[in-house]
Design brief:
This protein is mostly helical. The chain folds into 2 domains: 59 residues, Homeodomain-like (Arc Repressor Mutant, subunit A); 153 residues, Tetracycline Repressor, domain 2 (Orthogonal Bundle). The protein is 64% helix and 0% strand. Helix 6 packs parallel to helix 9 and helix 6 packs antiparallel against helix 12.
Length: 239
């Protein structure tokens, strides 16, 4: 289990923050970085369906057409938001860490990014990472596996397997169980208690208070399997 220490944010005077839509924010020059920050803040607050150039212009205190000087269309803006997510998923990988710890830290960084922006993550999860930043992100993780001695095929397989787990876990925590029942007429808790004893017994451990422990258990099971494969690889090479 990894212990994380959260840095205490430094308070800044409100007038200097440049919040989108505020008087201070409106006086700032328009830039790609400022547009992306305002767009992500809008999605974080109101959901992805609220994001439009008109709404974004209102947040920034500018005409919607001004945004097109920096992003030719919404697809380019969405790519930039994906890259912003990737930057937040980045973790510093220290030279003294082994390959397994590097993968572990990358996994925790990915989950932290997803939980920070839960309303954007469902889009991110199914967006192919083929921007320069996305390709670099993929290349880095595959590089950890190749440097550990895995074949190109195994590196691709384990990278994809980790991706399946991380995307599924984060989707469940941001858009699945975290949002509650999605059926038009969900089965009541009373009926579950009466007719579905196995689910009723396990249900308390599906609650958000157990998300962290569940994530850690699944990740360690997956990493242990990759580590065993690595050990077998060494045995075969030695034999």
């Amino acid at each position: 289990m990894i212990t994380r220490v959260k840095a205490t944010p430094v308070a800044r005077p409100k007038a200097a923050r440049g919040r989108p839509g505020s008087r201070a924010g409106r006086s700032l020059p328009l830039s790609r970085e400022r547009i992306c920050a305002a767009a992500m803040a809008l999605v974080d607050r109101d959901g992805l369906e609220a994001l439009s150039t008109r709404r974004l212009g209102e947040e920034l205190g500018c005409e919607a057409m001004s945004i097109y000087h920096h992003f030719p269309n919404k697809a380019h803006l969405m790519d930039a938001l994906v890259d912003l997510m990737l930057a937040e998923a980045h973790v510093e990988l220290l030279p003294e860490w082994g390959w397994l710890e590097r993968l572990r830290r990358c996994a925790y960084g990915f989950r932290a990014m997803a939980l920070k922006h839960p309303k954007f993550f469902p889009y991110f999860a199914v967006h192919r990472l083929n921007t320069p930043a996305g390709v670099a992100f993929i290349d880095g993780i595959i590089g950890v596996l190749r440097e550990a001695g895995f074949s190109d095929r195994d590196s691709a397989t384990y990278f994809r397997t980790l991706g399946y787990y991380l995307a599924g876990a984060a989707l469940d925590e941001t858009a699945g169980y975290a949002k509650g029942p999605s059926a038009a007429e969900p089965v009541s808790n009373e009926r579950i208690a009466a007719d579905f004893k196995n689910l009723a017994a396990a249900a308390p451990f599906f609650l958000p208070a157990h998300f962290q422990a569940t994530f850690e258990t699944g990740l360690e099971m997956l990493l242990a399997g990759i580590e065993r494969a690595h050990g077998r690889m060494g045995t075969l090479a030695g034999g």
